[in-house]
């Protein structure tokens, strides 16, 4: 498996490790997402910024974060921090 | 840097290595995207499927693939293959 595919599979695995099963889909709740970002981006982001990010993101209204929303959030934070 | 963040940074780097600079944004064109998927998912996907995937994806109409579209495409293919 290429380094690229290994990276893709790591991200999918990490999502499923943290997300709770919700019917046929896994989802993050907002609190868990905040904790996750704080842990992963601890050295590059302050808590108030995380709150702003979570507020700005247009969730699909259910207050929970599905895989696509997780992806876009994580990569947006990563690009902002690095 | 955590394994998770390392994976995120690998994906961002690979995108920028392959995408051409287009003003202030980098983009993939359709041909390059097809080649990229063929290379990365060679052992798990046939060419006709790649064409279908590229057709189904709702590009924003400019025929080019920006970073978010690249993300969603790659993870959709990865989840379908593995």
TrEMBL record, chains A, B:
<dbReference type="InterPro" id="IPR034325">
    <property type="entry name" value="S-100_dom"/>
</dbReference>
<dbReference type="GO" id="GO:0046914">
    <property type="term" value="F:transition metal ion binding"/>
</dbReference>
<dbReference type="GO" id="GO:1902808">
    <property type="term" value="P:positive regulation of cell cycle G1/S phase transition"/>
</dbReference>
<protein>
    <recommendedName>
        <fullName>EF-hand domain-containing protein</fullName>
    </recommendedName>
</protein>
<dbReference type="GO" id="GO:0048306">
    <property type="term" value="F:calcium-dependent protein binding"/>
</dbReference>
<dbReference type="GO" id="GO:0005509">
    <property type="term" value="F:calcium ion binding"/>
</dbReference>
<dbReference type="Pfam" id="PF01023">
    <property type="entry name" value="S_100"/>
</dbReference>
<dbReference type="InterPro" id="IPR011992">
    <property type="entry name" value="EF-hand-dom_pair"/>
</dbReference>
<dbReference type="InterPro" id="IPR002048">
    <property type="entry name" value="EF_hand_dom"/>
</dbReference>
<feature type="domain" description="EF-hand">
    <location>
        <begin position="45"/>
        <end position="80"/>
    </location>
</feature>
<dbReference type="GO" id="GO:0051896">
    <property type="term" value="P:regulation of phosphatidylinositol 3-kinase/protein kinase B signal transduction"/>
</dbReference>
<dbReference type="GO" id="GO:0005615">
    <property type="term" value="C:extracellular space"/>
</dbReference>
<dbReference type="GO" id="GO:0071345">
    <property type="term" value="P:cellular response to cytokine stimulus"/>
</dbReference>
<dbReference type="InterPro" id="IPR013787">
    <property type="entry name" value="S100_Ca-bd_sub"/>
</dbReference>
């Amino acid at each position: 498996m290429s380094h690229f595919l290994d990276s893709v599979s790591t991200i999918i695995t990490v999502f499923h490790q943290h997300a709770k099963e919700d019917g046929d889909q896994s989802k993050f709740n907002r609190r868990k997402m905040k904790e996750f970002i704080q842990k992963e981006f601890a050295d590059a982001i302050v808590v108030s910024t995380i709150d702003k990010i979570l507020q700005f993101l247009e969730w699909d209204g259910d207050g929970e974060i599905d895989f696509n929303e997780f992806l876009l959030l994580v990569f947006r934070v990563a690009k902002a921090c690095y």
